[in-house]
Design brief:
Radius of gyration: 14 Å
Number of strands: 0
Number of helices: 4
Shape: globular
Low-confidence stretches: none
Distance between the termini: 15 Å
Mean pLDDT: 87
Largest sheet: none
């Protein structure tokens, strides 16, 4: 049980690091649909980072409608894959 907890913490920390490196959201930039794909993919990581540091954004405040559509499609798939892969070995 301890090994599982350590593995989840390490994976979460690695995911947050990747979210910071590849997908840090700037509040003054307007994002298009392509950014919605990336931001949705890193939604779990950026949300965890937002819980720790309040200045981290997990959704861009300035974006297009296509950004919103792709953000939620990829974000929901990202969250589902995060939880569904826990049962597999």
């Amino acid at each position: 049980m301890v090994g599982l907890a350590v593995r989840v913490i390490i994976q979460g920390a690695l995911l947050c690091l990747l979210g910071w490196l590849f997908c840090d959201i700037n509040s003054f930039e307007v994002y298009s649909w392509y950014s919605g794909l990336w931001h949705g993919l890193f939604l779990p990581a950026n949300f965890v980072r937002h819980l720790i540091w309040k200045d981290v954004l997990y959704i861009a405040p300035l974006h297009t409608v296509a950004y919103t559509v792709w953000y939620w499609i990829v974000g929901i798939l990202s969250i589902l894959s995060f939880f569904l892969r826990r049962g597999r070995r």
